């Protein structure tokens, strides 16, 4: 199976989000998926929330981002850094988004299409946030999709279950990290 058209998206694995995941095995599991992708020659793209100093992109009508405190997710915010266990290696793109979807306010589509990527493997925090929004937009953009169910985390376990078991399978293949990494061998 050729993987040259596949990319692993590691989304919102920033310290502020990763530190709130109650499952202590989550980040190590995801680090294993990142290592497997690298070993298989699959590009790893890191997607982060990021704003300019002063938050000129912030809109008070936006319930998610309108209430962010000054300085949050700006270049100087240590909580905006990617968790060190899944940090980018030199040459791995970091895509900065301005809203929930990895495509919103970013150059993700340009980077993917320029790299000949047609298949996205989605992971991230939160299942009901970046993963859901990115999956829906990527499906509308005709990408082939895989979601690594245990590579996603959400503060609501039931929402995570419903999404990964009932909603996502309509538009994506849903696998565990272990199932996916075995398919790369």
Automatic annotation (TrEMBL):
<dbReference type="Pfam" id="PF00857">
    <property type="entry name" value="Isochorismatase"/>
</dbReference>
<protein>
    <submittedName>
        <fullName>Cysteine hydrolase</fullName>
    </submittedName>
</protein>
<feature type="domain" description="Isochorismatase-like">
    <location>
        <begin position="6"/>
        <end position="178"/>
    </location>
</feature>
<dbReference type="InterPro" id="IPR050272">
    <property type="entry name" value="Isochorismatase-like_hydrls"/>
</dbReference>
<dbReference type="InterPro" id="IPR036380">
    <property type="entry name" value="Isochorismatase-like_sf"/>
</dbReference>
<dbReference type="GO" id="GO:0016787">
    <property type="term" value="F:hydrolase activity"/>
</dbReference>
<dbReference type="InterPro" id="IPR000868">
    <property type="entry name" value="Isochorismatase-like_dom"/>
</dbReference>
<keyword id="KW-0378">Hydrolase</keyword>
